[in-house]
Amino acid sequence: MFRCPVCGFDGLRKPPANYSICPCCGTEFGYSDAAPEPLWQIHASLRKNWMNRGATWHSQYTVPPPFWNPWSQLAEAKLAYDIPWLEGLVFSAPTTYTKVDDEFPEWKLAVA
Amino acid sequence: MKLLLAAPCNLALQDPVVGHSLIGVFHEIKIQVPHDAPEIPGDAMLPKEWAIFSKFGLEPSEEDKDYTLKTDIFWPDGKVLASHILDAMPPTKNGMAFIAKSQAFPMGQQGVVRIRESLTSEGKVVFGPIEMEVKVSVERSLPSIKENK
Known about the structure:
The complex is a heterodimer.
Chain A: H1 39-52, H2 70-76, E1 90-92, E2 108-110
Chain B: E1 2-15, E2 19-25, E3 28-33, E4 45-57, E5 68-74, E6 80-87, E7 96-106, E8 111-121, E9 124-140, H1 145-148
Parallel strand pairs in B: 3-9
Antiparallel strand pairs in B: 1-2, 1-4, 4-7, 5-6, 5-8, 8-9
């Protein structure tokens, strides 16, 4: 299986070239990304367009994998950096704890 | 069979000598977005690496069996977000551990994200379900006085 460089879908049956189409974002490789600019730049622009269209599943014939989520897919492919609604977002996950069973003193628990 | 620990954390490490280490156990995620940021879709996921760590103590009679942990993650509205099935790592002297890793955390809905786990062996549930919760809150920052003018 191959990964789509636009949306990060990792179930492409053929390499992203030679007019194959990504069922997830609908990119036709060799056609949609045919331009004088560097490929990464065209792919970033196609990704942006796909996200602006709501990042929905493209194909009517190939069904998405179970529990498919476009944003998780982008995160797993390390392509989430230009998601528009992430701009300026800050998050924190306050860490708490601890209950460690005394029977297992070798248990290590590090809290950042 | 005894549940020793089940917790979501930023990172779970496994070392053959010192055992397991959990870094950043969390039960809440607070998100702040700028007041003029675009609307966040309902299925939005925050690109954040995290893991669900679970560890069970085994009686001698329970060792040498195959165990599988089923983990379901639910959106605050109750819909299933993800479902994983993990086979047990080889039992150690400290018990049996599972680490379910993920690259994104649900943030499209405010409320409580529920994580439910069940341990099965030979097709039967032998422990659980166990439930963990992570509270997700999203706040929009207020425009500054300067921006208001």
